[in-house]
Please model this.
Amino acid sequence: MKKTLTGLKPSGELTLGSLIGAIKQMKDYQEDYDSYLFVPDLHAITVPQDPKELKERIRKNVGLYLACGIDPKRNTIYLQSENLYHANLSWVLECTTYMGEASRMTQYKDKTSKGENVSVGLFTYPILMAADIILYDADYVPVGIDQKQHVELARDIATRFNNKYGNTFKIPEPLIPKTGAKIMDLQAPTKKMSKSADNYKGTILLLDPPETAKKKIMSAVTDSDNLVKYDPINKPGISNLLTIYSSLKEIPITEVEKHFQDYNYGSLKKEVAEVVATTLTTIQKKYQEIINSNIINEVLDAGREKTTKLAEAKLKEVYHKIGLER
Ligand code: TYM
Model:
């Protein structure tokens, strides 16, 4: 059975973008693939974190995975930090990655171009991500469009290693959703909806009270021509709302466009807001049942045990090939 693998950083609260870009894909594919969904908590510390908040968010992430419909029987769920082999393989891969390739990663470039004082970890972060993926020979990596470049780097790193040392790693492919590869900020619809956004009105958190989420949709920035059309370049705000609706209702965007063609923006927003609120209500109801139960620990224990064995074997093979043995 082919493997899918992905992770969502607990560096902020999970958003509607996290759901549509990554979690929903994992849920939709879970029947057909051997699925690995982990918490990249080591990635979260590439930027400063409050220890208490980080700990809470790690647990919240797992609770939300399950509440969003990720079936623990079909998914291996684990914490990156509980499996020491991720960081270990990452070191080996760092030594086979060129400065030039790592410097081309757009997320890193964006942060440094703003003059932010970034950590070395933020620079090497895509290499740890490559380790996360190729450690388990994942075939597919369901991600939003912003992570595509990182998966491509993982492909390059794996290919180079295989060429030099013989076939060791599977070459992973990114899986980008047809609809919702980049959900936009509601207040600045040319920017990605992000868990670290400055304007909280632009981002819908999966744990936002449904009424708050509705208000955020109602005050989403659009344009003034009152014409419903899917045109992400010229009408990013309306196109974003149509995308959200299309993804959550699982209706193709062309049909969504038709459905709303005679609506004014106010009534369109109202209907999108309803769908978002219903989605959040369902997730939050399950989340409340899960978050204080023991299921999170059970799932993570099983995930740690299974992935540690797999990762240990892979790292041994790598060490053997590169001559790290006595
Ligand atoms: P992260 O935590 O920034 O985002 C998690 C996933 O959610 C997707 N996503 C979005 N998709 C559509 N619209 C949005 N507004 C939106 N916001 C977030 C992201 O594309 C991503 O798929 N480096 C990764 C975490 C990671 C990882 C991995 C992923 C670490 N190791 C191995 C896959 C495989 C990250 O920072 O994603």
